[in-house]
């Protein structure tokens, strides 16, 4: 990396931090801080969901698999498209109809305070593992690019993420997500043609890669794995408490449905573009092995991008991957403040609650940094993401989703299904290999993790239906839900929420305009191969910023 790359990277970092901090004075209530006012445009909510999910593994996890196995990585990500359509069709509108601020609030109303506390503590623990795992690839990207020690990268980036997440709330998270999506989409559209040019054309990719490089499955990632991972993704995207905020922060079930559908469309298209750089790098350098594979994506970018664009791509990668961290930190603070602290001290003043919320972000952020430092000793990011997901994902997030639709499950039945599912999956992962010497392969592990909780949930549902035992907790929840819905229909609109949403669109437009100028400026320093592509990308982003600015003005006048 040259001096221009470092300058661009630091400038882009400043832009992202400034965008997040600009919402410091708008998030003055629990609803504005944790639900972004409750009427976020569905396009922004969906792009934020996409980046929160996409960035968790694209550059390091799926990039590593793309370098090693090729098309397998694309096939794995297409299951996320199917999961998104399922969520958009059924789960996202159901969450929005619940009228709950967080998933934990729904669990409390539907299943009782005891079950809600159990889930809250357990999900906070699992969230720490995930955020730590997701902070590691952010640091890995910087480490590969600059040579700085990975421990230092984790500490510095963790602190930056904590600052703008604590100050900006959910709107700050969402706007930075959208900016990262735009920057990275533009950058990858520049990288791909330059990468093909470096190896001598598209044909060379087919000629100089292993014979099975374009097969959708292999021994480790089989058709059975894809089936299991598709089920897992439908539950994880629909039930992860951090992602639920994207469905509850829009204004209607119809908008929530669109959030899921746009997410699915993006995952139908993006893997075919995003996975090309590490796949092409297999031709450039076929000798990476072990944890070196995790750096293949950035190595390809460094090999072909002109001065300055490497720094911009690096900055986009860093904060896009960090999206998963700030999303989960916001969720952890929401659960702790709204659903744990507030239940113990219900008379706490709103101003004091906001202080607790921001302190919670800081504390959970520090704990996340500690977990990230332990990732290399646990076998690398791929092993952690897939294993933790297989063992805990469906057992934790499946039961609350089931409760959204079931009249028969009780708090106790949901709790027991969760405990039995987790216990059996933990046994199969850790104890069964020790006792029998037989361990499940990747596909069997994922399938067991996906189906075991569903079997427990459906078993109780069938039994309760056969006896006609409608849950008393469901009857009480229905009364509470009807009361809340009626109150919201008769309640005057929240002017501060409208102002916050209008302000969010203006910040997005201004930040995109600055980003457009960066692309155009870098185009003027690029060689002939990259000049016109970079210039076109910058011009398109500039046009989009103008369009959003006009829309924000009309939105403000209408409000």
TrEMBL record:
One of its GO terms (biological process) is sodium ion transport. One of its GO terms (molecular function) is symporter activity. The chain crosses the membrane at residues 6-23, 44-65, 71-92, 118-136, 148-171, 178-196, 221-243, 259-281, 309-332, 353-375, 381-402, 414-434, 446-463, 507-524, 530-548. CDD domains: SLC5sbd_u1 (cd11477). Keywords: Cell membrane, Ion transport, Membrane, Sodium, Sodium transport, Transmembrane, Transmembrane helix, Transport. GO terms for cellular component: plasma membrane. It holds the Pfam family SSF. It is a multi-pass membrane protein. Its main location: membrane. It is found in: Cell membrane. Belongs to the sodium:solute symporter (SSF) (TC 2.A.21) family. This is Sodium transporter. It comes from Sinomicrobium pectinilyticum.
